[in-house]
Amino acid sequence: MESVYLFQGELCFARFLLPMAFFLPFIITFDILKKTAVLAGAGKTSLVLPVEINANKFLFKKAFINGGISLAFAFLVSLFVQLCIPGQYGFNGTFLSVLMGLLAGVLTIVFAFIPLKTVLSRPRPSSL
Fold first, then answer.
1. For each of the chain's 128 residues, which pLDDT tens digit applies?
2. What does the alpha-carbon distance between residue 71 and residue 24 come to, in Å, rounded to a whole number?
3. Residue 64: enclosing H or E segment and its boundaries?
4. Cβ-based neighbours of 115, under 8 Å, separated by 6 or more
5. Rounded to 5 degrees, what are φ and ψ at 33?
6. Of 56, 63, 68, nearest to 22 (Cα)?
7. CA angle 107, 111, 112 (to 5 degrees)
8. pLDDT at 128
9. How far apart are CA 116 and CA 78, in angstroms?
10. pLDDT value of residue 50
11. Which of 13, 39, 98, 125 is most buried as measured by Cβ atoms within 10 A of its Cβ?
């Protein structure tokens, strides 16, 4: 397998990393928060969402923030690695494929728990 570069060439690593770093957290956050809101609205969970929350605005805002933070972090780490390595240094494609899979797994686990923590840490309205 040929060398793979971070930001140059037709099959550069950033071409696959950056979209995954944004869309994976975005979709996971949106999906989990939407399912939580539906369950809370149906009364199938002890979680009670405040009435003043606009559900769609809240869902997209949280999903966009999580995706943006993940994208910015992945971009900055990749840029740092690119600046630290010598010019024309390439990486092993198999190593980067394994690294991409591990990163996808970590993003999935982390961004499955962050939305739940966000919703569960919100103050609950008192029920008298």
1. 567 788 887 778 888 889 999 999 999 999 988 888 787 777 776 666 666 667 788 889 989 999 999 999 999 998 898 888 887 788 888 888 898 899 999 999 998 888 778 766 665 555 44
2. 10
3. helix 55-84
4. 28, 29, 32, 33, 36, 62, 66
5. -65, -35
6. 68
7. 115
8. 41
9. 29
10. 62
11. 13
The label of the residue with tokens 């919100």 reads 122
Q: What is the C-alpha to C-alpha distance for residues 75 and 72, in angstroms, rounded to an integer? A: 5
- For residues 123 and 47, what is the distance between their CA atoms, to the nearest angstrom? 10
Total residue count of the chain as it appears in this document: 128
Task: Say how far apart CA 45 and CA 41 lie, in whole Å.
Answer: 9
Structural contact between residues 74 and 123, judged by C-beta atoms closer than 8 angstroms:
no
Q: How far is CA 106 from CA 21, 47, 71, 99, 121, in A?
A: 11, 27, 14, 11, 22
Assigned token pair, 17:
């990393």
Q: Which amino acid is at 20?
A: M
Nearest to 4 by CA among 88, 103, 101, 98: 88
Question: What is the pLDDT, as a whole number, of residue 53?
Answer: 67
pLDDT recorded at residue 65: 93
